[in-house]
Amino acid sequence: MDAVAIRGVLLDFSGTLFRLEPGAASVSGLRLRDGAALDADRYAELLAVMTVPTGVPEHLPAELHEDWHRRDLDPEVHRSAYEASLSAPAIGLADGMPALLYDVMLAPGSWQPYPDTGAALRLLRERGLPVAVVSNIAWDIRPTFAAHGLADLVGEFVLSYAEGLVKPDPKLFELACERIGVEPADTLMIGDSAEADGAAVRVGCRFERVEPQATASRPDALLGALRAHGIAG
């Protein structure tokens, strides 16, 4: 157990609490340029493009790199950057498919919580520890939490597009700590990106990384991260 007690917790969204895993019905109409349906491998590649936490997709034209870097600050830029990326010849989607796939990403039902997301959030509630979700994102993710009955377990949503800041900017973590009323030194940040989420240590938070695996392959990483910092169930 840590010597210093954790008094508040910040949590990333994609790859940490939830993962983009649309059901088969959500993507059944998606086709490649040759008319074939998406196969499992290509589908996995597209999901990776749509949830990359840092860097730029290798097939994105250079003139769109600036838009990609600021996509999480502006919903319109986010849509145009993703659709441009998904429209690249290397991706191979048929005309009109990038817009449809983008809409799938925004649907609350396309995001699945990790098996221990609910248990971790309920544990924090039971321990009286305030929680903020801190995400680089260009749309409101509250409906996704609500769709899974988890919205009431999060005290604050600190979202890049609403705040005009993106991780790893330390100001976003400072703002999140302020919103939950806890000093950074008493706060734990849990996320899947050492570069983006790990920047919380620059303001004094502690950090625990979880792997952004498929939900079925990561049953209890969140609870393990909490236990590692003295928050036991």
Overall description:
This protein folds into 2 domains: 130 residues, 3-Layer(aba) Sandwich (Rossmann fold); 83 residues, no CATH class. Helices cover 35% and strands 12% of the residues. It has 10 helices and 7 strands. The protein is globular and about 60 Å long. The two termini are 13 Å apart. The model has no long low-confidence stretch (mean pLDDT 91).
Summarize the structure.
35% of the residues lie in helices and 12% in strands. The protein has 233 residues and is of the alpha/beta class.
CATH hierarchy: architecture of the largest domain: 3-Layer(aba) Sandwich
The helix/strand class is alpha/beta
Name the CATH superfamily assignment of the largest domain: HAD superfamily/HAD-like
Main sheet specs: 5 strands, parallel
Whole-number tally of structural domains: 2
Q: What form results from the Cα inertia axes?
A: globular
**Mean of pLDDT:** 91
Secondary-structure element order, as H and E?
A: EEHHHHHEHEHEHHEEH
Fraction in helix: 25-40%
- Count the helices. How many? 10
Head-to-tail CA distance between termini: 13 Å
Strand order of the largest sheet: 5-4-1-6-7
Give the C-alpha Rg: 18 Å
Quick one: how many beta strands?
7
